[in-house]
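#structure-requests
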Amino acid sequence: MIIALVMALQTFQPNAPQISDPAAQRELTVPRNLTEVRLNECLDLAVNDPNSGIVAANEWKIEGGGFFADHCLGFAYAVDFKFDAAITAFDNAAQAAAAEKDDRAARFWLQAANAAIAGQRPTEAIGFIDAALTLGTLDGMQLGQAHLDKARAMVGIKLEEKAGAELLLAQRHSPQDPLVWLLSATLNRRLGKTQQARLDVDVAAQLAPRDPSIALEQGNIEIVDGNYAAAESHWRNALEIRSTGRVADNARALLKQLEEGKATVEP
């Protein structure tokens, strides 16, 4: 049972929290035993009331809940945006699971990494991800997610070229994930590789044609190349798809700049 933590879709923002609603993204599985039933109950409690979830997880930990209790504890802290505490709990869960040769250890380290990215501790995030990868138990989408998260962390410490290599691995293992292609497009645009950025964002748009963040990035790429009409079209499309939220606010600001003849996109 893992948490798929929400990541920012518009651009890499290493200085901003990356977990916006971990509760909404929890992957649900059918419990196989009473321990997993209790885990589900603990996680559900944390979703509705993080403080109660923290209390319940700590009580379970005292009772000998092991890495399951730490998992719930980390989740509850993450829902409450207490990322430092979440990092510790997830790391404890991972270490305990690894000691028991449980395959969930890698997933717990990925959760610790997500919390570290959100808590602006990218170097630690890379360490957690490497620990997860070393176990060799991740595959498919989970493996792609690991490389995607490593790229996000690397951008946080200005290792953009190495981040690009991680995104190529993410594309290989998660080719159907539009976020992989969107963040690759954003990174390539920032590196001045607009031709590759355009190719990447086109794939993202094919996979998720109604994602406003992708439409926004399409406009960002066009404005870099001086294609003002195309940029305006994509930014207006982003607003049509979703008229509220951070992406919509950015689209409006860029359209206003465009009307004033000074639209620019941060590198």
